[in-house]
Amino acid sequence: MLKITLTIEGMMCPKCEARVSKAIETAFSVKEVKSSHEKCRTEILCEDAIAEDALRAVIPEGFTMTGYKCEKHKKFLFF
Length: 79
Hints:
With 79 residues, this protein is α+β, with helices and mostly antiparallel strands. The chain has helices spanning 14-27, 52-58, and strands at residues 2-9, 32-36, 41-46, 64-72. The protein has a single domain (2-72), classed as Alpha-Beta Plaits.
């Protein structure tokens, strides 16, 4: 299991979080996606790595992905 952490600028409310999460869930096979506008962060739990460029391409207009980190994950997602 992998955890991909993205830094996303431009999220200002729960509706923005939902928009970013939905775009990722629709484009890729993922276990879970959690976004936080307060932390400017989206965390993705998945079996296979997703390339940074592929993620950047699906982030909705109005939001900017400024960071990417992929690591092995053993626990559940918590903010």
